[in-house]
Fold this protein.
Amino acid sequence: MIILLLIILLNSCSKDFLDKNPTDSLSAGTFYTSKNSIDMALTACYSTLQDVIFSANMPAIDCMADNGYCFNVSWYSITNITQGPITPTSGGLVDKVYSYSYSCIARYNIFLKTLGKYSGTDVNAELKSKYEAEARLLRAQKYFDLYKFYGSVPLVTEPVTIENQYQPKVEASKVLAQINSDLDFAISN
């Protein structure tokens, strides 16, 4: 009886049964179905500008040099930067700029790839170009932050997958070229 029950249960677990979109979150396969959903995704790209390090506290970054004085010296470990004891595990501003910029770039790249595949008739070619220009402008800004802080960084212009998750740093001049390319596209569109 138990063997028969196990055979029935194992056969019922077919690929169609297990291959489902998440029920507790949005999925790219089911989300990008209309102009409204693309507008919401672009709005989510703009929401990345709200992080405190890149908005309200941006003037405090001048405290890393002699351009300013930071009253809250523990803010994102700025004193580590001004005094020099920075290591790969320092955390604070050093880690935040890098990790947050790449999480934003990942969002922009997913949006750009999905927008390129969108075939709905409610978004014409001109509007698609405008949306792409806006996302590329945001990506240029994040790469400029990375360029300012680090110079040579990995240049990721496609969504990250298992196959391409480890990417080497490229020369700072290539990062700057990508920034200029994104800005030129944004200006012309």
The mean pLDDT is 82. The two ends are 68 Å apart (CA to CA). The chain is about 55% helix and 0% strand.
